Amino acid sequence: MARKKHKKLPPAPDEYQGADIQYPNFSFDIYHRDDKSRARLGRLNTPHGTVETPNFIVCGTKASVKALNPMQVKEAGADFILANTYHLMIQPGADTVQKLGGLHKMMNWKGPMLTDSGGFQIYSMGDGTDADEIKGRNYNSKRGRSLTKITEEGAAFRSYKDGSKLFLSPESAMEIQRKLGPDFVVQLDECTAMHVSEQYTEDSMHMSHRWGDRSLEAFNKSHDGTQAIYGVVQGGVFQNLREQSAAFTATRPFFGTAIGGTFGGNFDQFFEIVSWCMPHIAQDRPVHLLGIGTFKDIFECVRLGIDTFDCVSPTRIARHGWALMKGAPGERLNLRNAKYAHDQDPIWPELGIPCSSQFSKGYIHHLFKANESLGGQLLAQHNIAVMAHLMREIRKAIKENTLDELQKEWVIE
Amino acid sequence: MARKKHKKLPPAPDEYQGADIQYPNFSFDIYHRDDKSRARLGRLNTPHGTVETPNFIVCGTKASVKALNPMQVKEAGADFILANTYHLMIQPGADTVQKLGGLHKMMNWKGPMLTDSGGFQIYSMGDGTDADEIKGRNYNSKRGRSLTKITEEGAAFRSYKDGSKLFLSPESAMEIQRKLGPDFVVQLDECTAMHVSEQYTEDSMHMSHRWGDRSLEAFNKSHDGTQAIYGVVQGGVFQNLREQSAAFTATRPFFGTAIGGTFGGNFDQFFEIVSWCMPHIAQDRPVHLLGIGTFKDIFECVRLGIDTFDCVSPTRIARHGWALMKGAPGERLNLRNAKYAHDQDPIWPELGIPCSSQFSKGYIHHLFKANESLGGQLLAQHNIAVMAHLMREIRKAIKENTLDELQKEWVIE
Q1: Residue A13 placed within a domain
Q2: If you count Cβ atoms within 10 Å of the first and of the last residue's Cβ in chain A, which end, N or C, has fewer?
Q3: d(C-alpha A28, C-alpha A31), whole Å
Q4: Structure confidence at residue B162 (pLDDT)
C-alpha cells in the first residue's frame, strides 16, 4: 500500500475526557510479587472463571484452536483462548457468530476468551515483509496485500474471501468484538514496522492513542458488564515513544494493557523494548504481551511483569512435526527426523496427558510420514500441554523464588 | 498391467491336506437367530475383548483412523479397527511396526483389530478403473499403476513411496501380518474386476484358493494363539463360482470368512452376489463383508447373515463435510451447504457424544469454510458414532424382531 503520512492532528489530551468505566464482573488480584524482579502472581477473574497468572493464551484464530476440539484444549491444561477479529469479521462474520450464540457458545469453550482488534492483521496485510520481519517468516507473495488505506477514520481493506470492501474503525472494531462476545476486547491500533521512521512511528502512535479514546467511548456505549477492554502500547523501537505510549494507556480507563507493535530484530532489542514499557504502564492492571511465546521470551518477560502471553507457534509448529520440549536445543524436537522412526518412547511420559505419554515418537514419526492428520493433532495437544505446564512451573517458581533455576531446566543457551 | 492368463494348475484339493488349526483364544458364539432372515446375534471373543455382532469395523488404513485419536474412536462407541497390510508394509514397514510393539501398542488401541491381506490393493493398483468401478470413484490417473506382475507365486509391485520392488506372496502376507500383530489376519487373494471373463475369474478364483491353502500353512507355522485367520470368497459376478468359492472356504480351517471381490454394478447385483455366497459358507464362523457400508447395504446384508462390515466412507466423507444422519436423503447431510451457515442446532443432540451434541451445524459449516481441520475431526467422530449407534440399534432390533421397522427409520428409499 501507499504509506501515507498521518494527518497532523493534536495528540489525545493528557487526561481522559470521557466517562469513567467500571468493570464489576472483572478483577485482577496480584497476590505475590517477586523479590528480585517485577514478576508477579495474580488471579484474573472473569465471567468465565479465574485464570492464574502468569499464563499462556492459546490461539484459536478462526474460532478454532488448530486441530483440537475444546475438550482437548481443556485436557491439555489451557485456561484461556484468543481469537482474531480480522479473520472472524470476514468468515463467518460477526453477525453469524452472534447468531450462533457468540464465541463461547459457538466454540463450546467455557473458559475466558480474548479477541484482538484486527490491528496486527491490518499491519501484516499492508506490509507483508514487516509482518514477516516480526514473525521471522519468509514473505509469501500469494498472501497478497489487501489493505487499501489507513486514515484517521480507520483502515479500509478488501476481504480475502470475496474481495468485498471492508472498513475497520475504532467504533466498528468495538461493535464487532461486542458481537463476537469474548470476555476481553482490544482497542483498535495501528501496528508499525521496525524500519519506519521515528516521525512516522510517533504520528502513528498518536493516532493509535486517539483510536484508543474512540475505542473506549464506543466500548462504553454498549457496556453491559460482560466485557472488559485492553489498551495497546505502541511506539515501535523508540524508547521515548514506548514510554510515552505506556504512560498514556495508564491514564485511560482500560481494564488491561497489551503491548504490541514491532519488537525489533533480535531478542536483546525485544527485551529492551518491553523493559521500556513496563515501568510506565498501569501497575495494577493485567499486562498482555501480544504474539510472543518462546520459553526464553516468556521467562524473561515474566521477570518484567508480563501476566499473559499468546503465540500461534505451539499449534503451528505442531503441524510441521515439532514437539515442544523442556531443555531441548531450540526448545523442541523434530519428530519428522529419521532418528525417531524406531523410537519406542513417548515424547514426555510424565506430562500427564495421553498425547505425550501413550504414543511413541516412532508412531508419531510414522503419522507425519504417512500424512495422517492424527500426528498434528497429537503434537498440537502436546505443545499446548507443554505451554500450560511451563506456566504452572513458572508460577510455582515465582512463589518459591526459584525462577532462575527453573529457567535453566527449560532453556539451554 | 498386462493381464496374463493364470497358469493352468489343478484346483486346490476338495479336502484340506494341511494340519488342522485350533484357535484357543478366539471363539464366535451365535446366541440368537432371526426368524424371518439369516440375521444373527453373536459374540466374537478375541484376546482384545469381545465384540457384539453384527458390528462395523472402523478403517484405520495406515494405522490411524483418519483425524481421530484412539480415545476418540472408543468414545464414539467403535469396538474394532481394520488396518491395511499393503499401506503398512510400505510405510512404516512391518519390521518397524513390530519394533514399535505391534499395531495395538503402536496405535494405543486396546480393542480387536484386523488387517486385510493386501489383495484388494493389488487389484486397485493394477486396475484403477476396476477399483473405481467397485468404489464408485472417478479414475485418478495420478495414483499410477504400480503393480508389475501377478503370478502363481504372488504379486510383484513397486512401492508408491520410493519405487522399490516389493513382492506379496501368501507366505509373505502372513509373515507381514504376523509382525503387524492384529487379532485377525486375512489370506492373500486376487480380487478380480467385474468386466473380466468368466474364465479369467474362475482361474483367478482357483489361484486364490491355492493361495488360501498356502496362507493357512504359513499361518500355522508361526501360530502362537494370538491371531486367527479369515479365508476370502472370490468368484466375481458368477453364481457358480461364488458358490464354489464359498463352499471351498468352509472346507478349510479358517477361523472366519470374508467375502471380497467385485460386487457388480448396482445394489441389486451386489445383493445377489452376497446372497449366492451365504448358504455355502461355514455357518458357524464369523462372516465379514469387505469394504461395504451404506446403511441400506448393512441392513440388507445383516439379513443375509453378515456379522461384520468395514468401509472407509464414514471417515472419508467427514473430510468433505458430510455428516451421516439417520433417515436423511442419501443417508447424510452436507454441512458445507450454505443453508447451515446460521443453523444453531447440533447435528444429533441425542447421540450422546459432544461432537454431535455440543457444536452447532452453523459452527461446523464455518470450520469447513475456514479450512479448519476441527470440522473434519468432529464429523469423523460423529460418523463413527452414527455407525456404532446403527449397529447397536440393529442388534436390538434383531432381538426384538423389529428390523423392518428400524430400517424404515434409517433408510429412505
Answers
A1: no
A2: C
A3: 9
A4: 86
Q: Which residues of chain B have pLDDT under 70?
A: 1-5, 122-146
- Looking at the structure, tell me whether residues B294 and B343 fall in a common domain: no
- Phi, then psi, of A231 in degrees rounded to 5: -85, 160
Can you give the CATH number for the domain in which A189 is found?
Answer: 3.20.20.105
Instruction: Supply the pLDDT for residue A403.
Output: 97
Amino acid identity, position A342: H
- The secondary structure of B191-214 as a DSSP string is ---TTS-HHHHHHHHHHHHHHHHH
Residue A127 distance to chain B (closest CA, Å): 23
Which of A295, A311, A327 delimits the end of a domain? A311
Minimum-distance CB partner of A62 among B99, B106, B372: B372
List the domain range (segments joined by +) for residue B216: 52-311
Examine residue A402 and state whether it is found in any structural domain, yes or no. yes
Q: Are A251 and A110 members of one domain?
A: yes
Would you state the cell numbers that stand for residue A406, as one nine-digit string?
Answer: 527453573
Asked if B380 and B318 touch (Cβ cutoff 8 Å), the reply is yes
Which of B108, B179, B336 has the highest number of chain A CBs within 10 A, making it the mutation to test binding with A?
Answer: B108
Q: Are A92 and A121 members of one domain?
A: yes
B369 contact A CB<8A:
yes
B109: contact with A, CB 8 A cutoff: no
- Residue indicated by cell numbers 450422546: B352
Percent of chain A with pLDDT over 90: 85
> Average pLDDT, stretch A170-182?
98
**CA of A379 vs chain B CAs: smallest distance (Å):** 12
Count how many domains chain A has: 2
pLDDT at residue A144 above 70? no
